[in-house]
Design goal:
The chain is mainly beta. It has 1 helix and 10 strands. The chain has one domain (35-189). Strands 1, 2, 3, 4, 5, 6, 7, 8, 9 and 10 form a 10-stranded mixed sheet that branches. The protein starts with a helix and ends with a strand.
């Protein structure tokens, strides 16, 4: 009986090996995990009054930054896109990137900066439709930059210039990729 059991076991192993997906020319499927869509949350006093996208994907900040002062929204600045060059490496005090794909739709992304500088730069690699940005300072002031939902191509743009050094806590951007993947980078210069 042991001889027949071992033969049966060998046959089972051979059949399993022959019917394995790799032997049949099948590949494993890659499962793409999609982030759930939610609604855009804007706090009372937000200066943009147009209808915002109904559903967005939220990319949370990699670094959580707490603003300890009460938030006060300043009047919105209308952004004028002008391609610039980045300052020298030694003048960049902070940077972070985010990749956004076109199948995500509108994305609400946040960058926890918590650093002091005199200018913010936006580096777009791909094509992106930008809605607005919120720059939150340590004193609680929130400067909203209105992009008017315009599309912008690859390039480095000045997001904001400050008069003197300012302590930037966070930058939040509502955007949509119009290419397969758009890489967005934020730089704080000094």
């Amino acid at each position: 009986m042991t001889n027949s059991t071992s033969k049966l076991l060998c046959c089972a192993v051979i059949i399993a090996a022959l019917l394995a997906p790799q032997a049949l020319g099948q590949r494993r499927r890659t499962v793409v995990v999609r982030r759930p869509h939610t609604t855009v949350v804007v706090r009372p006093g937000h200066p943009i009054r147009r209808v915002l996208p109904a559903a967005v994907v939220v990319h949370p900040a990699r670094v959580a930054v707490a603003v300890r002062a009460p938030l006060v929204f300043l009047p919105a600045l209308v952004w004028t896109a002008a391609v610039v060059s980045l300052p020298a490496r030694e003048r960049l005090v902070w940077q972070d990137t985010e990749s956004i794909t076109d199948d995500e739709g509108w994305v609400d992304t946040n960058f926890g900066i918590d650093g002091t500088g005199d200018a913010l730069f936006l580096d777009i690699n791909g094509k992106a439709k930008l809605n607005f940005a919120e720059v939150t300072f340590a004193n609680g002031n929130v400067q909203v930059v209105d992009f008017n939902e315009k599309a912008h191509k690859t390039g480095v743009y000045k997001l904001m210039d400050f008069t003197g050094d300012r302590h930037v806590m966070t930058v939040r951007i509502l955007m949509k990729s119009e290419s397969d993947t758009t890489k967005l980078a934020i730089y704080l210069g000094k």
